[in-house]
Amino acid sequence: MTTLSNTDTTALQQIGSLKMCFYGAGSMAEAMVRGLLDRGLTEPEQVSMMNRQNVDRLAELSTRYGVHTSAEDEAKAAMLREADIIFLAMKPKDAADAISQVRELFHPGQLIISIIAGMTIKTLETLIGKPMPIVRTMPNTSSTIGLGATGVSFSSSVSADQRALAELMFQSVGLTAVVEEPKLDVVTGLSGSGPAYVYYLMEAMIAAGAELGLTQEAARELTIQTVLGAAHMVKATGENPAELRRKVTSPNGTTQAAIEKLDANNFSGSVISAIARATERAAEMGAEIERKATS
Ligand SMILES: NC(=O)C1=CN([C@@H]2O[C@H](COP(=O)(O)OP(=O)(O)OC[C@H]3O[C@@H](n4cnc5c(N)ncnc54)[C@H](O)[C@@H]3O)[C@@H](O)[C@H]2O)C=CC1
Ligand SMILES: O=C(O)[C@@H]1CCC=N1
Fold first, then answer.
1. How far is the CA of 161 from the centre of ligand 1 (A)?
2. What are the structural domains of the chain?
3. Average pLDDT, the chain
4. Which residues contact 244 (CB under 8 A, 6 or more apart)?
C-alpha cells in the first residue's frame, strides 16, 4: 500500500499543468474531481467533464466546481483531443460504444486512465485500436474526501513517469495498491464496492438503535462514531481486527451474545460470498464489454 510522501511535492505540482478530461460525469467522476480539487492537485480550468446528454448535471458540476463542461459535440471532441489525461468514467454497459465513437480523437501523447469495473486493458486496447498507454484502476467514492482506496494496473506501454503520475493522483485522494491486472476484479469486490457494505451495516445499526428506542439522531451519531472509531483503532494500533474484537467481547457478555446471533446468520460467510460474487460480477461485466468490442 502506498500513500503520499512529502518528497512527491514537485511531481504533484507538475500534475497541475496537465489538462484532465473526464469522459463520463457521474458519481465516481465527481468523487475524483472533488478530491483532486480539494487537495489542490489541479485547478478547475484544467478539468473538463462531459456526459452523454444530461445538461442539468453538467451545469451542476460546472457551478459546483468551476470545471469546463459541454454537451456540444464539437466542444466535447476538443476537450478529448486537447486533454493530457483522459479518465474513462462511464458505466461498463456504455463503455464499448462510448469509446468506439471517439477513438479517432485519442493520440499517443495522452494517458488513458480507466475506472470502469471489469473492463480489461486488452479490451480497451481493442476498442481504441492504436497503441496508447493505459492505466486501469479501481477507486472508490471515498476519494471525495481524500480517503479513497484504489487498485492500479498498467499496460506495458505506460512509462515510469506516467506510472508515478497516475499513482500520485490517486494517492492524493487516498491510498493506492498496485496489483496484477486480473486482481483488479477482487479489488472491485473488496474496496470498489466496499463502502456500500459499510453503509449497509450502518443503515442496519441506525435502524436497530431507533427501533429499540433511541432517537434517530442519537442512533445515527453513535453509529457514525462507532464505525469511525473502529476503523481508526485498527489503523492506529496496528492490531488485527480479530484481536480488537476479542478485547470488546467479555465472556458471556453482550458482545458475545450479539456475535453468536451474527454467526447463527453466517455473517462472516455472507460477507465472504458477497465479495466473491462482486468479484465474479466484475469479470462478467468485463466479458460483456469484450464481446461488444470484438463483435
Ligand atoms: N460508483 C462507484 O462507487 C464506483 C464506480 N466505478 C466505475 O466508475 C464508472 C462510472 O460509475 P458511476 O460514476 O457510478 O456511474 P454514473 O452512472 O453515475 O455515471 C456514468 C456517466 O457516464 C456518462 N456516459 C454514459 N455513456 C456516455 C457516452 N456515450 N458519452 C459520454 N458520457 C457517457 C453518463 O452520462 C454519466 O455521466 C463505472 O464504470 C463504474 O464501474 C469505479 C469505482 C467505484
Ligand atoms: O457497483 C458497481 O458496479 C461499481 C463498481 C464498484 C463500485 N460501484
1. 27
2. 6-181 (3.40.50.720), 194-274 (1.10.3730.10)
3. 95
4. 230, 233, 234, 237
